[in-house]
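Ligand-bound model needed. LD2JLWAY.
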Amino acid sequence: MTLLSVNLNKIAVLRNSRGGHEPDICRAAQTCIEAGCGGITVHPRPDQRHVRPQDVRTLAAMLRGRVEYNIEGNPFAAARGDYPGLIALAREVRPTQVTLVPDSDGQITSDHGFDLRRDIAQLHPLVSELCDLGCRVSLFVDAGSRDFELAAAIGAQRVEIYTGPYAEAFADGQPAAALAACADTARRAQQAGLAVNAGHDLSQANLGTFKAAIPGLAEVSIGHALIGEALYEGLATTVRNYLQILR
Ligand SMILES: CC(=O)[C@@H](O)[C@H](O)COP(=O)(O)O
Ligand SMILES: NCC(=O)COP(=O)(O)O
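Prediction:
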């Protein structure tokens, strides 16, 4: 079974465009949970363009003991204003999972994963601390990545495959090569003892093909397309549609 973790960043984008509290991120989370999702994802960024530190804390209190809570972000981005940094937030709220992503500051969205051979020494102390906090750690990687045994050796339990290139290839009607690269990568990660998550630009259109190609896919985190589709069909119906695809 593949867990659906709904990324609520885009609810916060809409709310922040006017200030105030609407649309309410906790109400959106509640709707997703009632519709059957297995997790909620947020990706706070230092510029606070969408999910803010206080959202991370409020959601943590609301979700505890109900569904998985996945916080994504760059662990090396410096604290800025009242953004305390990803690891500081993890220390405070102890989410189920922390997904480390090598975004640069101000990047419009995530567009690549870690180079495990190059980055592993820098990641090691962070992964150790997060594991000691009781968080599962997942590392964002590109399709085609190698060196998964290095990630397993420092205590990471999962990788998240960056699916942007697959989504783009699917939209162009030529997904085979990108899909095969994801499938090979997933197999290598699983052989190294890691579980495999996936995310970025997954949608109702491209998810079924992806899921069918990746045996043992543990989790997908989906936000941009799902929240967009929810404008037409409603949030609960949209979440149920995704769950149907993942069955
Ligand atoms: C790591 C990843 O692929 C997602 O977290 C994605 O980057 C969503 O972040 P934004 O909503 O900031 O684009
Ligand atoms: N980890 C991917 C994620 O949380 C959502 O990415 P997207 O669906 O907003 O592209």
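Residues 7, 9, 43, 45, 72, 101, 109-110, 140, 199-200, 223 surround 1-deoxy-D-xylulose-5-phosphate (ligand 1) (CB under 6 Å).
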